[in-house]
Each structure stands twice: as structure tokens, then as C-alpha cells.
Amino acid sequence: MFGDFKNATSSLMEKKTSDILNKRQVIWQSKGILRRLYYRWYDIIAEYLKPGTTLELGGGSGNLKEFFPDTISSDILFEPWLDAVLDAQVLPFKKESLDSIVLFDVLHHLIEPATFFYEAERVLRPLGRIVLMEPYISWASFFIYQFLHSESMVWHVDPFNMAGSGKSKNPFYGNQAIPTLIFEKYREQFIRDFPRLKIIKEERMDFFIYPLSGGFHNPSLCPLFLWNGLKFFERLLQPINRYVAFRLFVVLEKK
Fold first, then answer.
1. What residues form DSSP beta bridges with 90?
2. How far apart are CA 70 and CA 67, in angstroms?
3. Burial of 81 (0-12, 13-18, 19+ CB in 10 A)
4. More confident residue, 177 or 1
5. Domains recognised in the chain with CATH numbers
6. φ, ψ (nearest 5 deg) of residue 210
7. Sheet containing 197-205: order of strands
8. Residue 27's pLDDT band (boundaries 50, 70, 90)?
9. Does the pTM of the predicted model rise above 0.70?
10. What is the secondary structure of 44-62 as a DSSP string?
11. pLDDT tens for each residue of 71-113
12. Confidence band (pLDDT; 50, 70, 90) for 183?
């Protein structure tokens, strides 16, 4: 009886997850400003990918696959546009078999981020890279992520505590504070625990356009014709990015 309930609950969660992925793909096709943003981010990601085999974790609606067709795109549930179903914390790859791993808004969803880094360190070849694009908690973004975003933001947690990252086990209920905690508040612990994963790039970015775009969850308040003007103002604010940024871009390279 308990097993039947557990299976029914699991099936319901899988259906809900699949519905979310399909809804994201519909939004992706309908929001031009969102695609413009992501294409810019993909251009940035492309600069840091190593030649060879690239794995994308959390492939979601298949957006990255459009930009990098040779990427192995994966997620926790099967969708027709994905190549594999797998868990980022148990990577089914041989030692030193991958050249790059891309996580786009995935790290803050992981139950045990440290476990992922250990796995990534194992499967990456020497000089292989982990490329991450994640939420950044600044003075400006704090209020948006805390009160207007569908995902939670729990600041007072230890992201390296293997018991979890301060959120439920539903992988779509992310803790948006995790990337900022790992690479700022707990940066020294990350360096100490993962000496072979060198931080070669770290940039706080996106001040206006991203929050105004509404992302995948809210209506857009930014028509495309404002793009160039807002990008100009974002460049002016770059010196104070710690206080106004909404995104964190990080590249790790295996020694």
C-alpha cells in the first residue's frame, strides 16, 4: 500500500516536472527578449568551452542544444529533445572522459552541490572545464529573488553540508543563494575542498534587462527596441556590479 502511494507520488512529480519543461519551451519560442538574452549568454559560454566532449546538465527546454548541437544534453526526466536522463550528482561517465560540463541555472537546484563537484572533478579530463551561469544575490537582486521569484532563497545554509542545501528534494525548488554562497561566502572552503578545480573566470553581470525580461516566470517589461540603450547603461554600472548584478558567471578548470 505504501509502495503504491510512493509510486503514485513519484509519477505525479514526474508529470509536473515534464509539464514545467514543456511550458518552458513554449515560453522560449514566444519571448524574443528572452532568446536575445540567452543567445548573448551562450556566446559568453562558447568562449570558455574546451574542444571535445561537452555535457550539459539540466537541459530543460533544449535551448543550449540549439546553440551547441554536438553537446550531450541531459536532464532528470526524458524529453524528446534531450540525449540522456541522469543525475548531476551521479554522473554515468568514465574517469577523465569529458572536456566540458555546462550548468545553466542548475547548480542552485542540486541537493548536494559538493557531490556534483567531486563527480565533475572525476569525469573531467585535465584542463577540462565546468561552466556555470547562475543567479547572483546582490543588494538589488535580493528583493527580486526573495519576494518576486518562484524559487526560494535561503541564505543561512552551508552549501557544503552533505545533508542538503536548505531546500526540499524537489529539484525544481531551487535555493538561489547557493552559487553566491559557494563562490563568495564559502569561497575559501571551496578552494580548500576542491584544489584541482581552479576558478579561472568569475563575473557578476546583468543589471536591467534580465529582471525586466521576466525570465520564464513573469511577463516581459522590456521590449526589444530598448536592448541597446539598456546595455549601454549596464556597461556604465559594471564597476558596482557587486551591488546590482542578477547573474553570476563562473568557469572552473581542472588542474
1. 87
2. 9
3. middle
4. 177
5. 2-254 (3.40.50.150)
6. -60, -55
7. 84-85, 72-75, 54-57, 98-104, 124-135, 247-254, 197-205
8. low
9. yes
10. HHHTTPPSS-EEEE--TTS
11. 999 998 888 888 999 999 999 999 999 999 999 999 999 989 9
12. very high
C-alpha grid cell, residue 149: 521569484
User: Chain-centre distance of CA 206, in angstroms?
Assistant: 15
- Please, which residues have CB within 8 angstroms of residue 60's CB and are 6 or more apart in sequence? 21, 24, 75, 104
Per the structure block, which three cell numbers stand in for 79? 524529453
Percent pLDDT > 70 in the chain is 83
**Distance between CA 55 and CA 103 in Å, rounded?**
9
* Three-state DSSP class for residue 232: helix
Interatomic CA distance for residues 166 and 113, integer angstroms: 11
Please answer whether residues 105 and 176 qualify as being in contact, where contact means their C-beta atoms are separated by less than 8 angstroms: no
DSSP 173: S
Reading the block at residue 108, the C-alpha cell is: 542552485
